[in-house]
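Team,

Forwarding the record for the chain on the shared tracking sheet. I've put the sequence and predicted structure together so nobody has to dig through attachments.
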Amino acid sequence: MHFRSLALVSLATLALVGCDAATQIAGDAVEGEVRNAVTTQCEGVAESAGIVADRISEVCQCSADAFLEDSELTVDDISRENIEGIVNACADSTDPSPSTADQESPE
């Protein structure tokens, strides 16, 4: 009888580990789909905003990260209007050119 209880507990533990792994895989898949959707929307917004081609990848990576970090946003919130604000913020934060405050005045 003791062996049956031990076997049952072992099987239950394995099942839970399997569920956790499946949940993690599903979560990663959903995150990947959201990242792809945000990146696609971002590319259109960035091109329209005049962001130079060699910066679009960096800006869209930042935009996807920012979207995923906001727990209140869902797949349904992936729209041009929502992504536009994120793209603008990321374009500013990833801008490699020094700001006018950082530039020295010529003497």
